[in-house]
Design goal:
CATH topology of one domain: FAD/NAD(P)-binding domain
Helix content: 25-40%
Bound molecules: flavin-adenine dinucleotide
Shape: globular
CATH architecture of one domain: 3-Layer(bba) Sandwich
Strand content: 15-25%
Structural class: alpha/beta
Length: 422
């Protein structure tokens, strides 16, 4: 059933798109306003002139337990664009010792893999794994270091790299509550929830363009270069949207989903508290076809690089919590990363064409204090809700968190409209 009001979604990142898709699917008229000339926000592909190919702004990993993400892809028709191994397997290499191993998780809830020396982390014992269970019941104020021992072989070879990737924050200082939420929905849910999935043909192909086509197919629209500069409020309602050259007055049945980054939202909404500390991610891309046999994804222990991804036409790397590298000279950093990639992948020769992307504010810092600052989706304005990976999703800044926030925002808007109709 189509409804009279128009929903203005501000920001075409995953949170805004998830909200738009859900609202459009429910028969609501949606218009998306995006400041950039491209949708996707922090999760997008672009043509890189230096490499001469399309790449993603950052390598993005999803796990098969990310149910909101998989549901979203199902709705927009691209579930098959995420690919990965049939089994929950993770290849690792330790650059300090040269050891290589593959973590082979059990499919079901009982972690039999812990009891098999060939499937678990080398140099660890079954009992070591118990320490991570403490994360599941961690208090909201606790850091991971206050909850479990952040040392030893298992920590260095499993907890540290996995939690750093999930939280984009040094695990020792990061929120144990957020780490617990990740563990609960993945490792503790069994291997079936841990299959690694990657958008091999690009993030935009899988997550962004099909969502826009879906919304447009339901009579929705997107405007690019539409930067919201101010919101007008009156009587606890959003009344107008100021885009500079154009000011849009909101009708009585119109509503707003504000899905912009936290520092923008804080400037638009009076008295809004948001996370204000962020962490960087550095990705390097090398224009070289991966050698046969290189796993699609490898965790690197004791390196500058943390994860290596083998795409069809390139090898890409990820370093999380990478603020220490933001001022590093680009060529020097690319060389350091390339040396490690060449060693792990067994590639000889000079560094191929490369690109380094430093995302300064990749995600909010997953610290207990920052987590506390995250607002819910509802605001004190009757026709405006918030969305974004930085809102109170209970998860760190991830695709899954962004999509859940968009879903929640859409549901709230619908509830608000239903209440008006009653
Ligand atoms: C390098 C990198 C690697 C990552 N890796 C992973 C990963 O492996 N797995 C994972 O799950 N997550 C990962 N993430 C996190 C994931 O990308 C984000 O959680 C998600 O994309 C956030 O979506 P969002 O919609 O909340 O925010 P954003 O993507 O930031 O969207 C906000 C949108 O609002 C627009 N906007 C801003 N101001 C205005 C304005 N005034 N008016 C109109 N529009 C405006 C922006 O242009 C943007 O399009 C990674 C992020 C980065 C940067």
């Amino acid at each position: 059933m189509s409804r009279s009001g128009q929903i203005h979604v501000i920001g075409a990142g995953l949170a805004g798109l998830a909200a738009a898709v859900r609202l459009a699917a429910g028969g609501q008229r949606v218009i998306i306003h995006e400041a950039a000339n491209q949708a996707g926000g922090r999760c997008r592909s672009y043509h890189d002139g230096t490499l001469g190919m399309a790449i993603d702004n950052g390598n993005h990993l999803v796990l098969s337990g990310n149910r909101a993400t998989l549901d979203y892809l199902e709705v927009i028709g691209t579930r098959d664009r995420l690919v990965g191994p049939d089994a929950p397997e993770f290849a690792f290499v330790d650059l300090a010792t040269g050891e290589r191993w593959t973590l082979r998780l059990s499919e079901g809830l009982i972690p039999w893999w812990i009891f098999d020396a060939k499937r678990r982390v080398p140099g660890t014992k079954p009992l070591d794994y118990l320490s991570g269970a403490r994360l599941l019941w961690a208090g909201a104020d606790k850091t991971i270091a206050q909850t479990m021992h952040c040392g030893g072989t298992l920590y260095r070879r499993l907890w540290q790299p996995v939690l750093l990737a999930a939280l984009n924050t040094d695990p020792a200082e990061a929120s144990a509550r957020l780490a617990g939420a990740v563990v609960r929905e993945t490792l503790a849910a069994g291997g079936r929830a841990c299959r690694p999935l990657i958008a091999y043909d690009g993030l935009t192909e899988a997550f962004i363009d099909p969502a826009l086509r879906f919304v447009e197919g339901k009579a929705g629209a997107i405007r690019y270069g539409a930067r919201l500069r101010a919101l007008g409020f009156a009587e606890q309602r959003a009344e107008s949207l100021d885009f500079g050259e154009q000011v849009e007055q909101l009708g009585a049945d119109d509503a707003v989903v504000l899905a912009v980054p936290p520092w923008i939202a804080a400037g638009l909404v009076p008295d809004l508290t948001t996370p204000s500390e962020f962490r960087a991610i550095v990705n390097a891309h090398f224009a070289v076809a991966p050698p046969a046999g290189l796993p699609p994804m490898i965790g690197v222990i004791n390196g500058t690089v943390e994860w290596i991804f083998a795409f069809r036409d390139r090898v890409s790397t990820t370093i999380s919590g990478a603020d220490r590298l933001l001022d590093a000279p680009r060529e020097e950093l690319a060389q350091t990363i390339w040396q490690e990639v060449a060693k792990v992948a067994g590639i000889s020769g000079a560094m191929p064409r490369w690109q380094l992307i430093k995302e300064r504010r990749a995600t909010f810092a997953a610290l207990p204090d920052e987590n506390r600052k995250r607002p819910g989706a509802a605001t004190s304005y009757a026709n405006m809700v918030l969305a974004g990976d930085w809102t109170a999703t209970g998860l760190p800044g991830t695709i899954e968190g962004a999509i859940r926030s968009g879903n929640r925002a859409a549901d709230l808007v619908r509830d608000q409209l239903d209440q008006r109709d009653r």
